[in-house]
Write a sequence for this structure.
């Protein structure tokens, strides 16, 4: 079983930047897809960004031009770079990834979530 460990959340001022990380708990062969989701209090979980193994990306309209998703398969880690954040970006952020272990087993896992709060 591959677990995903998120880090990088915290308190940031409006207009600031934050980089979230999502690391696999053990060495894997590759991520096939990774998505970042967020859920604000009282709201449904929404997709923020997704990346596929061929480098294709897709972003929610609300974050286009401000957030960048990436994967470093050599480090078994994915990232969400968040720039020019606004209070509306405040939420718990979750990563979800599917891929292959080094034993060629498929996995599809969720991280535990990391809180991002944008406030002055």
């Amino acid at each position: 079983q591959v677990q995903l460990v998120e880090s990088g959340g915290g308190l940031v001022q409006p207009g600031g930047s934050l980089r979230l990380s999502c690391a696999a708990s053990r060495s894997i062969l590759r991520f096939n897809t990774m998505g970042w989701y967020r859920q604000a209090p009282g709201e449904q979980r929404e997709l923020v960004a997704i990346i596929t193994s061929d480098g294709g990306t897709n972003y929610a309209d609300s974050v286009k031009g401000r957030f960048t998703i990436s994967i470093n398969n050599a480090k078994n880690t994915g990232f969400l770079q968040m720039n020019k954040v606004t209070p509306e970006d405040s939420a718990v952020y979750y990563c979800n990834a599917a891929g292959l272990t080094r034993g060629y087993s498929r996995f599809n896992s969720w991280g535990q979530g990391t809180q991002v709060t944008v406030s002055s």
